[in-house]
Structures are given as structure tokens and as C-alpha cells.
Amino acid sequence: MEITPKAPAPSAQERRFYYGWVIVGTMFIVSLAQTAQYNPALSIFLKPITEEFGWSRTTFSSAIAAGSFVGAALAVVIGPILDRRGPRAPTFLAFLLMGVSIAALSAISEIWHFYAIVTTNRALITGLLSIVAGVAVSKWFIRRRGRAMAFAVTGLRFGQAIVPPYTTFFVLRAGWQSAAIALALFVWALTLFPVIALLRRQPEDMGLRPDGDAPGDAGEDAAPHGRQSPALTDEASYTLAQALRTLPFWLILFATSALAFNIGGLNFNLFPFLTDQGISEAVAAGILTVWSLISSIGSLGAGFIAERLHVRFVMAIAFAVATAGVVALMVADDIPMALVFALVHGLSFGALPMLMQLVWADYYGRRHQGAIRGFTTPFQVIVQAGGPIAGTLVYDLMDTYIPAFALFGALYMASALAMLLARPVPLRRAASSSA
Average pLDDT in the 216-234 region? Predict the structure, then answer.
């Protein structure tokens, strides 16, 4: 297996505080806040809204799919903007609009109101917020990218631990309309000031170097996992055209798209499945909290491991563990077995979304991450939209989620194999292919 050489000792400048960690902290907040419109949080609204308006679960999930398709188109535009202009203005505007839309959910009376709101919020998440942490953190770190990405993306795990019980609290005590308003205030209070005040595009704009290195430090000469940079000041950076001409690009795209499909399908249907199994809503929300907290451990652990072991091996292992977690969920008919699922699947689920952000930068460098993610995200977003529909459609037709869960497990295993086959291609070969 491919082992990363031990990182060199930090320079005197690196030992001083590096602004890149402010970027990581802000991305932690961004990751946490966007879970207000992730599937676990939206699923809290599923039963009260569908029961009040007489809609099917597939009707509810189709609104999420519609927003994902809009987000796929948005990502193509946003990716290059993040490279050129940075994340501050787009991220601020996204959260400002998201808060308005969530609050407006409390006043819906027609199905088109619901579709307009959910479509807007899902487009903002899938077209911008879901990629901004990966792009921003990748530009500030090379040698310490694994841990930096892990800390930033762990916000997703904390969000999924906090937001579902927070939302459930207001739904049970004041109704889903009040819960929507409380959720909007939560998003605004958390994000608006730090995003506009703290985000910056890249270290060079502040006279800094990636990882906080001083110019000429040996540490920044080495790209992740021993790949040598053609320049002394950066890792090897592939253009989108060069990346497209490598086989690993398409294998990674398959694996990350399958992951997106499973994330959409499992996250959205998990809460309804647990309550259908006879577990109370409050206990089910608690299980989601345990699952998310365990996920944070998986995310942080994978980040440090990915600095030592090639990211493709870490992802393959995580996909295999996720398969075992899905099997545990399929037989979970009581609280203890549901907690086994939370433990096993939580470890891998925490690792995989973080690794999905990390893998593109580790393979193809930081300079063109916006363009690369802008190209790949539409594929992931479109298939992710099918995940909730697959689960709810199977349920509506067969009164069970089990066949859908079996599909999710099979996709995890296929993704593990794809990552094992995704051997990195040297930049010189990719460059000659695109000449």
C-alpha cells in the first residue's frame, strides 16, 4: 500500500498561528449550518406536512429532487467563481436566502409554495454550500489537508447531531410551522457574521503560503502521498481538461456519485424507517444524534489517517464498513440494534463525506478545485436526488424500505472496488494526453 512519508518538522512561521485555521473554523460553521436543510432535518417535517396536506412521501421527496437538479446547474457556474473570487460573498448570500426560505416554509398553503422553498434551499446546498468547504480548505492546506478537511467537515456531523433534535423539539411542542421559523433563526445566528467577516480566498492573498509555510520551506515542496510537485511552491495541480483524461477521475466520480445517492436515500428515509419500526420520534431523533456524534469520530480519524495512508485505501475501507452498517439497519427492529447501526455506519458515514471532499484535491491539486468540483458536482447532485425517491417509492409500492437498503449496500461495495482500482496518474502523463 502507498504510505505517505513522515511530514517534515514545521518551520518557525508555521508554529505561529496560521490564518488557515480560521478558514477551517468558519467552514466548520458553514458545514454545521447547512444541515438545517439536509435530509435528516427535512425528514422531521415529512410526517407532519404530508399528513396535514394529504401528500405522499414521494411527493415530498420529489421536491428535494427538483432542487438538486437546479443545484447541479448552479455548481457549474459557482465552481470557477470560487477559484477566482473566493467563497465569502456567495456563501453569505446563500445563507441569507436560505434563512428567508426556511422561515417562509411556515406559511405554505399550496404545493407549489413547498416546491419553490425546498427547490431554492436544495439548490443552494447542492450547488454551492456542499462544495465550498472542500474548495476553500484545499486552497489553504497541502501537507495538513487531511486533518484540516476533517475538522471543517465535522461540522456536518455536529449539525446532524444538533439540528434533528432541535427541530423535533419545536415540532412536538409548537408545531412544524414554529419549527421552521426557529430553524431559520438558527441558521442566521450561526453564519452571517463569521462568513462575511472571516472568509478569504487563498493564503497568497494575505501574503501567506499553504500550511503556513514560509517561502522556500521544504515542507511545501512535497505533494500529498509522496507525489512531487513540478514547482517548488505548490503541489501538482491538474487542469480540468487534464483530470478528465485520467481513468481515476471517472472511477472516483462513480464512487462519489454512488455515495451521494446513498447519502440522499439513507439520510432522508432513516427517521421514518426507525419510527415505522415502532421506535418513538424522540428516541429516533436521539439515535440520529448518536449516529452523528459517532460520525464525527469517523471524520476526524479518517482525516489524520489520510495523511499517512493513500486516500483511495481509506475510502475503500470506509465503503466496506458502510456496507456492514446498512446490513445492521436492515435487521434493526429495536433500539439496541438501531444503536449497532448508529455505531457501525456512523464511523464510515462520518469518514466518507469528508473523504469525498479530500479526494479531488489529493489527486488533482488545489489550483483548479473550483472548476473540477463544478464539473463533478452535477453528477453527484443528480444521482443524490434519486436516493430519497428510490427509498420512498419502494416504500409507497411495497410498504417496506428493505429492497432500497439492499441497493444502497450493493453500491457501497461497488464503490470500494472502484477506489481500489483508482491508481493515481502522474501529472506529466495527463499533461501529455491533453496536449
Answer: 42
